[in-house]
Amino acid sequence: MTAESGAWRKGKRVAIIGAGPTGVSAAIAFLKQGFDVRLFEKNPEPQPLGGAVLLSVPVLAVLREYGIDVGPSFGSKTGVQFRNNKGKVRAELPFNPNIEKSFGIPGWHYGVLRKSAFGKMMNILPDNVIVPDHGFSHYEETGDEVIAHFENGAAVTADILVGADGVRSKVSEQAFGDPGLFHVGLRVWLAWCDHIEGLDRTYGAISHGRKIQASWFPMLHDGKPGFEWWIVEPVTEDQPVPENPEAYLRNLLKDFADPLPRFPDHTNFESQIFPWNIYNRPLLKSWSKGRVVCVGDAVHPVSPYAAYGMGMGIEDGYFLAREFKNASLEDAGAVTAAFNRFEAERVDYVNHQVEFARELGQRFHHAPAPVAMIRDFVFDNTSVLGKLIQKDYLADQEKMSLALTELHV
């Protein structure tokens, strides 16, 4: 298949770089708006990384709009508690009944294996959309068009170019310069396992010791019950992965309350665990330039405390395409106006979520010992943590959710 096989009409051409969840979401959303889409992937086939993921109700509503069945077999509805390492509940995320009623989806968070959710997204893409083995090289703008060049020598002419090529995005770097990536001093171990008999599936817990977070949630993988669990630890950028991850993680979990020390017993350490060093970049005030726009980790990599990286990228793709409804991409003014509307809705909202996640990571993993002792005393004995989460995490998401009236039932 050539890079421009199938329909490729001037004024309708959307080239997307990167076939991860963000790029696939954008492709689906633009196709639903009637555009011609090519999704360029550097690998022979898309490769979703990591284990399980928590998706929030507005993300499920977007996937439902795409035509994906988000019924009971899609994911596991779960309550969310913040705990200390001894099991004491510090805060609980409430469900908003207005959001549940508006979307017709109960709860707020759903646990699902990343591969399963991504597979359902891939299943609704037409066969001719993904162009594999096309590593992006650079682009050039020629007035009313943009030409994407690839490492294999191929080139494609489009009306707009969408960079969804991850934290080390070449599209973003060309558009906005050196991203200034920095290691946040954290490593996440993402893991999952099959169901454990007797373990409550109605809630999950984010548990904190002095320096380590260890957490678990119920999830579904291909409709079957299981659990996702993960550990967040402070590390330096050059700190190697331990040679024996199982022994290392068992040691980290030994001071945490049940059920956390049990999860390694049910996990295949060859195939069900994935270490991930966390990088961020300075926040951007604009994600577009000319006929180019970037979405997802290409402009806002998310620390684990947002629990929201895949979901935020899926939302980006939906919001971006929504602003191009009935637009001719030949019209430079229409392109700029659509980018501006997209950024007005997303940039400040996303930047706030990213900054809050980064701040929590610093508070929980890099506080000096005396400060950490005071932090733990306050969180154990007051409602401060719950109020912080409600104000800085939930409030903006609830406002965004209630504004998505076209997705309400």
Overview of this protein structure:
It is a single chain. The chain has 409 residues and is an alpha/beta fold. It has a single domain, classed as 3-Layer(bba) Sandwich (FAD/NAD(P)-binding domain), CATH 3.50.50.60. Helix content is 33%, strand content 26%. The chain has helices spanning 21-32, 57-66, 97-103, 114-123, 170-176, 245-253, 309-322, 332-365, 369-381, 384-403; strands at residues 13-17, 36-40, 52-56, 76-84, 89-93, 109-113, 130-131, 136-141, 146-150, 155-158, 160-163, 182-194, 203-208, 213-221, 224-234, 273-280, 288-289, 292-294. The strands form 3 sheets. Strands 3, 4, 5, 6, 12, 13, 14, 15 and 16 form a 9-stranded mixed sheet that branches. The chain has a 6-stranded mixed sheet with strand order 7-2-1-11-18-17, sandwiched between helices. It has a 3-stranded antiparallel sheet with strand order 8-9-10, covered by helices on one side. A hairpin with a 4-residue loop joins strand 4 (76-84) and strand 5 (89-93). Helix 8 (332-365) runs antiparallel to helix 10. The two termini are 40 Å apart. The mean pLDDT is 93.
DSSP, total strands:
18
Strand content: 25-35%
- Termini distance? 40 Å
Annotated CATH topology: FAD/NAD(P)-binding domain
Question: So what's the CATH class?
Answer: Alpha Beta
Total of helices: 10
Tell me the series of helices and strands, N- to C-terminal: EHEEHEEHEHEEEEEHEEEEHEEEHHHH
